[in-house]
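Researcher: Quick test of sequence recovery. Tokens follow.
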């Protein structure tokens, strides 16, 4: 079982930028897609972005398209989410997750992901 630990969350003003990391341990994640989800207070967890196992393909929610980028460094067993032009509505706990099957394209369905991090808080002030 892989363990995932997110980091990089914090408080930022609207219009600012923030970068999140997702460090994996326990086994290599180089053959599985990764994704980021978020959950705002009182709301259900929602898909944010995903990246294929090799990094060639990405997928974004419409709400973050053009503002967020997702990447990974398989040599470091780490995934990244870079967020620009942040808005107050981006405030949430952000989670990374790895797909339950290897060598897939980026996916957005939570049920497809087997391992999850504990989350990191991102707060965007207006």
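Model:
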């Amino acid at each position: 079982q892989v363990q995932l630990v997110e980091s990089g969350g914090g408080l930022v003003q609207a219009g600012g930028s923030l970068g999140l990391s997702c460090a994996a341990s326990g086994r290599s994640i180089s053959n599985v897609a990764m994704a980021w989800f978020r959950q705002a207070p009182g709301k259900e967890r929602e898909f944010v972005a995903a990246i294929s196992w090799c990094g060639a393909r990405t997928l974004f929610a419409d709400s973050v398209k053009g503002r967020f980028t997702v990447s990974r460094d398989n040599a470091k067993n780490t995934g990244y989410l870079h967020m620009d032009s942040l808005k107050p509505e981006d405030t949430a706990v952000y989670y990374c997750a790895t797909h339950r099957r290897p060598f897939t394209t980026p996916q957005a369905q939570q049920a497809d992901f087997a391992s999850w991090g504990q989350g990191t808080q991102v707060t965007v002030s207006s």
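The first strand starts at residue 3 and ends at 7.
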